[in-house]
Records
---
Amino acid sequence: MKTTLKIILAAAALLIGSCTPAMAREGVSRWCVSTNIPTWLLLGTANAELHLATGNHWSVQAGIKYNPFTYAGGTSGQLHIRQLTPSADIRYWTDSVWHGWWAGAGVVVSEYSLALPCYERYLDGNLAGTKLISGYDFALSDWLSLSLGAGVAVAWHRTSYYQGPVCGRLKDRRKGVTIFPSDIIVAMRINL
């Protein structure tokens, strides 16, 4: 996982560093930060994205989701959605950056662990893949925007399933390709 994370971060840094912004509109911010509200509802999963406009219609993003929390730890009612998920993507804006419709593609890697008492399966694993995303940005002011969108990912995963969160008795191991919703976006973006 650490090697994969280093490769993703190096690729994002190279992509961002090699871009020469050519902003035609006056007053358009090159840099933005955002956070996705639904992700915070996943038992407190912290998340942030750094955005860079690389032209009138293109931007690149690098983001991270992190949740180390466990609730009712050590019991049969243990609850957690722990994850470390870095991602990077590139977006095309139909009007101009930070305004209107956009579509993009990117990469995602994740190390995760899930324990839901009603699910009766406790699992952990990792994945790596690609995602397609699309959405629309509404300007709320000169410095604040609301971004709505959704995405789907195709990824290779390796997952271990356990009898319970405490005993750790392995029930099954699976690996293969999976398709899943990667993003439900209701994000607040601040132009820097």
---
Amino acid sequence: MKKIRNYISIILVFVGLISSGQDLKKYRVSMDNIFELDSSNYVLIPVGWETNATFQGIKISGSGYKNILVYNKVTDDVKPMFEDSIQIINYLRNRYNDNSKIKTYLGKYFVLNVTIEDYNKDRWLNYSDPSYLFVYNLETGDLRQMSPRGCDLKEYIFIESEGTILATFISDTNKDKDFNDNDSELLYKIDLENPEKNKVLYQLKIKKEKQYQD
């Protein structure tokens, strides 16, 4: 049964890529990491970057993915989360005990941490660049960056009763294109239904000699 399911997944990947008009030679499908979202109609299919990849002169480095294909089990539709852009995608699977399924909080929202820009202008997209928090609406296909620019994502938790996310970021406070002890840590609230209400709740200086700042 598992082998049959893998074959079906492979077919879905290629159908999705062909229908979107993209070159199959540019993709590396990670079959081991295909997974169903718990209590939903969706299967997510990660697509890896090719070896020694570059995009518009930017070299790609890291273990994340190039894109994620979203397969609707009811309609048989397959579509990519990202369109015509450069990114390294991670989705924090280690938050869950069951490696085959991931819980979807609030039913329709899926959270990713994504590196999308060569922030320090070194011609590499890698761990030195900030990781931003994105939210994908499985029902509408709407993808939004929820974290401020120049802020590197550390951790987040869902507050399910309120439909919000609490996240911590390292902010490039001194604008030196690096994220270190000279910067600040932000406690940030994200409203999934009303992103215009997203806001900084608290700012904490990292340096010990300047411990707290409102």
---
Amino acid sequence: MTKKTVCFVCLGKWDSTLCLRAKSIGENLEKSGWSVTFLIPDIIEHQGLDSANIHLMPTKLLSFLWASRSILKRLRPSFIHFLNPEVKAVLLSMFAVPRSCQVIGDWEDWHAISRDSGLKKYATRFSDWFMRKRSDIVITASRWLADEFESVGVPSPHYIPYAMLPREFPKLPNPFQHPTAVFMGSFHSNWDHDILIDAASELKARGLAPPIFLIGRGEDLNRCKDVCRKRELHNVQFSGYLDWDDMLNRLQWAYVLLFPIRDKIANKARCPFKVFQYAQAKRPILTCRVGEVPTFLDDKAIYVEATATAFADELERVMASPRMENVDYGIEAHTWESRTEDFIAAIGGNEAVY
């Protein structure tokens, strides 16, 4: 029997969530006897990663296309996987993918709806349209997006969401001196962390200042810091990026975990990875019943409307109450091993069913 081969094109940092989906599925495919190759950017953070199945690719577009074409011509994989329809991925699928190779387009969210502006927006939307047409197999991390794609003519898109973080939580002491509400996520302007800052302002107006600890980085981080400084929200602390153990430790010692998420297309079209990390931390989660969130947290989370007042009201109640017990969200079945089984079923022509 011919050994099946798959090549994952990863355009982010190897240790970031941008590569986690491909890396986790790829590693499990290898355990199942597949031949797996990864193409990742040749950047400082990736020095030393070059190996038999990890190839460092030039970051400049033409060099990237030429080098990728050479590797794909030599390997002739059965499948090539692209996470999100980035322009580089589209150009690679146009000019460098062998005809015998099936293209897997995988959408973890819907950039064409929620990202970019000006001319770049049109390039992103064209890339999204083209990759839907070009892909032999379409996968989405959101059931809503799979249904949306099917409604516009994508034949049988496969729903394969994210899974639990393949990492143990550290056994470290409580890093907080006082009961602290914790948020973790990317500070990008199209997400909804502004609700928390406005909630902190409302609580200040009530004479309350519960400690709120915000973990993460992004282009909107400095603006958020400036807003808190101007409003004198001294109880709101920003850590920036934390390494895995430090971040996970703060999640597991949180008094309550915070995840504001508005009911909009960008949020319904994605599977927020933090849902799994939050659930693994087993602390109470204050969030909104939007998109994939209730799929994995069921009725065990604390759900409120996506408004500053609703979050302020519930934060006031929770922070004034005795520390709640840990919550078992029952997500143990959502592993990357099970996701890999569904990936194999999808590329084999069968529906992935949950």
